[in-house]
Each structure stands twice: as structure tokens, then as C-alpha cells.
Amino acid sequence: MDLKKLIGGRQFWSLIAVLLILFGVLLIVGHPKEEASPAPLPPPEDDVKVLVLNYHMVNSMFISLAIEPGDFDWQMKYLVDHGYHSISPDELYDFLAGKGTLPDRPVLITFDDGYEDNYTNAYPILKKYNLKATIFVVTGFLSKRKGYLTWDQLREMEQNGITIESHTVTHAPLPELSDDRIREELVESKRQAEAELGHPIEFIAYPTGVHDLHIVGIAQEAGYKGGFTVKYGNVDRSSNVYAMERVPVFRTAATNVDFVDRLRYTSNITQFGWTRN
Ligand SMILES: [Zn+2]
């Protein structure tokens, strides 16, 4: 088929002219910065992700909050075998404040509440693998309630890599309390632990993780440097130091498989913003 014959000579040349103009416009619009050199790459972001594990009990009660001693041993060995290095809350704080560096694959191992099995079951395993850990204690329960740690046990553990911090006096849910009661829970637990242990208590784990900006303000006034939640995720430079993320470890039908999955996928989940608000 001859296009020139079909649409007539004049129209044919008009069509060619229109196409040439369009082609020229596309060239200009499509490559506006062809002459400019490519922009330099931005400096690499500090993407250190700190894993903060959250345990409660280490025993064979077969409840979700209780990791069996054999499983706990397996998990601690897994951390060591995979190049994780345990750190203290102060090391994490200094890193976030820009004052210190962290080892490769940093992990902060934490326990909430202050159960006696942290001493009888977890502590020997932590010592075996030379791992540091942190226990957030409910000060009003210590040396009083059955099943909870004593101050003597805490003092002994502090000689061997365990850090003690506050989990309030009574474990009451803070958002439901009056300001005076919130202040009492935060100030009195700090004062009590400082008197018993002889060093500053500077971190709080909010009971059941619940907190809000108002509570954070009171914690700050009370002299805490940072706080931990149960918001699922890794801590990094964008974390709020008064609302640091943790990865809870539960007993499940496949406790250790789930543990490894959590280590492997948490940083991706955090990165995509699925767990932050
Ligand atoms: Zn608790």
C-alpha cells in the first residue's frame, strides 16, 4: 500500500512534518538533563539495627510467657554461634546519643517482671555463654512474693553481667493511673532499686508495654534516660529513646523456629514501616 498515493501528496508531507516536530519535542522533553553529570550518591545511611529481645519466665510451666530452659539454652547458643554480641542498656543509649559504637550484631537481652527463674534457670545459661542481660524488676514484689527474685540474687547477678532496671513498683497499667500515682510508680521503684543496688536506675520498661507521651514526660522528669515498650521492631537511630522497640519471645508449638524467624524478619518488617506509628 502506498501511503503517499492514498492520502495525497500534500497531506503526506504535512504528516511527515508533524511527525518530525513531535520527534523533536520528545527529544527535548525526554532528555532535559542529558548534559548534566549524574548527582553524587548520598552518603550511606547509618542502618545499624539493634535487636532487643524480651523474655519473661524461663521454666517448664508450658505457658506462652515461659520459655523452657532447654529452649532458652538453644536460643542463647544460636545468638553466639551467629555472631551476635550482647550489650547493656547504657551501650545502646550511648550509641543512640552518638557517643559510642556498638559491636557487630548487637543484641540487648531483656527480662520483664523479675521472676525467680531468671536467677535459677536463665542466669547459669547466660553465664555459660558469657552473655550480658537486663532484668526490669517490679520492685514491690522483690524479696516479698513467692516466685520473684530477691535483692540478694539481684546483687549477685549484677556482679556477673546482669543489669537491673525498673518495671515500676506494682506493675499497674500506667495510662489508667492518676499523675501522682504514675509518678509514684516511676520515682519510688527507681529510689528503692538505687538504695538496694547502689547505682543509678535509668531505664524503665512500661508494664505490658503501654505508655503515651504524657507518661514519657513523667518518666523524663523522674530522671529516666530511656524507656522500653513491647512495640515490635528493632531499635535504630530513628527510635524514640523513651519508646524503644523490642522483640518478644514466646513459647509456641515451635518455639525455636519462631525465635529464628523473628530474628530474621524483624528488621525487614521495621524497614517497611509496618510496625511503626
Ligand atoms: Zn511486666
UniProtKB/TrEMBL annotation:
Coiled coil: none annotated. InterPro entries: Glyco_hydro/deAcase_b/a-brl, NODB_dom, Polysacch_Deacetylase. Keywords: Membrane, Signal, Transmembrane, Transmembrane helix. It is found in: Secreted. GO terms for cellular component: extracellular region. GO terms for biological process: carbohydrate metabolic process. Its main location: secreted. The chain crosses the membrane at residues 12-30. Residues 105-277 form the NodB homology domain. One of its GO terms (molecular function) is hydrolase activity, acting on carbon-nitrogen (but not peptide) bonds. The keyword Disulfide bond does not apply. Pfam families: Polysacc_deac_1. This is Polysaccharide deacetylase family protein. It comes from Selenomonas timonae.
